Amino acid sequence: MAKITIEEILDYSAMNTGGAETTPVYARKLFYSIGTFVEKKKRFIIAIDGLRRIGKTTLLKQILKKLQKDGRIVFYFAFDKKAHQNGEVLDEVLKFFINKDNSAVICLDEVGKIDDWGGIIKKYYDRSNATFLISSSAALHIRKGRESLAGRMINYTLPPLGFDEYLAQDGIKPIASLNFSEPECRTLFEEHLGSFLEKGSYPELHYVNDKPIIKNYIKTSTVEKMIFEDIPSIFKISHVSKLLEIYEYFANYSGDFVHESNISGFIGLSEPTVADYITYLEQSHLVKRIFTEANYAKMIRKKKKGYVASPSIYMNTTSNFSQGKLIETAVFDKLRQYEPLTFLDEQKREVDFVIRTAKQIYPIEVKSSDRVSISDAGNLLSYMQRRKLDTGYMIYQGAFDYLNAGGKKIYLIPLSSFLASEELVF
Fold first, then answer.
1. CA neighbor of 138 nearest in space, from 20, 267, 52, 15
2. Under 8 Å CB-to-CB from 37, ≥6 apart: which residues?
3. Pair 358, 377: CB distance under 8 Å
4. What's the CA gap between 67 and 124, in Å, rounded?
5. Phi and psi for 197 in degrees, rounded to 5?
């Protein structure tokens, strides 16, 4: 088994010898949540997962740099080389860092690729005062070590870059919040929206304008790497090409209801295998399903809608492009942290998203046009009547306005302003 030398560990990052690394000025929102947590010296193992190439390594280095400025001793090592992806190297790296400083902040990037990484880290966590930051390109990797680290680990997921963060990279101040109780807002940032939808999920593509380069980057660096390398490294995949076909189904029909039986017949795999493969894709953050609202207690058995992870991924990996699906995928990406549901009644009248809070229900329809009328709101009005709601919402490409029908009010919210809001208040 491959070993590692002290020189290799020291040379891996300038931070390992007390130096600093160059990082972007702009920091993702998650930087402040994790940074504040670590600054308070709450000692946990902090795990970050998320898609490939969306900024996990940059985020980790920014956190370390901030802690370094505050006087903490920090170390960094990434297990991106195949030769380093074994328990012996991890053990040597940790032994060296702990011996140098027993209370350091130790960052282990892509450590989830190592078998029994959780047990090895637990050993050093229990024997030291060190704080650990770890990362993985898939929640699957993090789950492997969760049992070993019960009560010691806090997990964060870094999502694809949002439109508000995309704007902030250029120093443009996004909208602080959009309150759905009174969602009146101006139409803002439309001139930046097209670029964001095409490539904005990925920080490294911010200043890239060559469409073939953008498409190839997203397809090969994220989707194919995760399907052909990450997922098979954890699960025994007998048909990797079929796993790709299932992903392509989601990419071609993002925003549609997912029927495992249909996929099974289409690609020639059993339904249980299809169900497993979809779960693997979900846990790798490439796709996501949302449940129907009806009969919520039995949601496991209900129909589910499927989406790819972000509008940029949809736009660059689908072979069945639709402007409507692109916009609905973008709205889903914005709403995902609020655990949206969808709705479909007996007459197949669908409402795209339903957000439920303890006090209110917020039905949301998505339209790709810049003009809508009462005739476009039939499904939404039917749902509002069913739930005895006075207010509904439609996100579209026009200016802020509202529709009135039979004492019910539908707010028309500009897509660009909705996506540019740092916080949605429900």
1. 52
2. 44, 46, 154
3. no
4. 21
5. -60, -35
**What angle in degrees, to the nearest 10, is found between the helix axes of 260-267 and 271-283?**
110
Determine if the pTM surpasses 0.85. yes
Q: Measure the CA–CA gap between 69 and 72, rounded to whole angstroms.
A: 7
**Are the C-beta atoms of residues 76 and 105 closer than 8 Å to each other?**
no
Phi and psi, residue 134, nearest 5°: -130, 160
d(CA 341, CA 238): 33
Distance CA 259, CA 300 (A): 13
Report which of 184, 168, 170, 94 is spatially closest to residue 130, judged by C-alpha positions. 94
The b-or-e profile of 383-413 (16+ CB within 10 A means b, else e) is: bbeeeebebbbbbbbbeeeebeeeebebbbb
How is the beta sheet containing 287-291 ordered, strand by strand?
257-258, 304-308, 287-291
Q: Identify which of 381, 358, 401 has the alpha carbon closest to the alpha carbon of residue 187.
A: 401
In tens, the pLDDT along 247-280 reads 999 999 999 999 999 999 999 999 999 999 999 9
Structure confidence by residue, pLDDT tens digits, 325-384: 999 999 999 999 999 999 998 899 999 999 999 999 999 999 999 999 999 999 999 999
Sequence-ordered strand ranges (E) for 268-318: 287-291, 304-308
Residues in the chain: 426
Separation between Cα atoms, residue 178 and residue 313, nearest integer Å: 26
Calpha distance 328→323 (Å, rounded): 9
Give the DSSP H/E element, type plus range, for residue 350: strand 350-356
Q: Which two tokens stand for residue 419?
A: 């996506």
Placement of tokens 């990434």 in the chain = 78
Q: Are 93 and 123 in contact (CB under 8 A)?
A: no
Q: Which helix (H) or strand (E) holds 279?
A: helix 271-283
- Which tokens in the block code for residue 305? 């809608």
Cβ contact 293:339 at 8 Å: no
Give alpha helix (H) positions in 186-238.
190-199, 211-218, 225
Do the bridges between strand 304-308 and strand 257-258 make them parallel or antiparallel, or are there none, so unpaired? Answer: antiparallel
Q: Going by C-beta distance under 8 Å and a sequence separation of 6 or more, which residues neighbour residue 278?
A: 246, 258, 260, 263, 287, 289
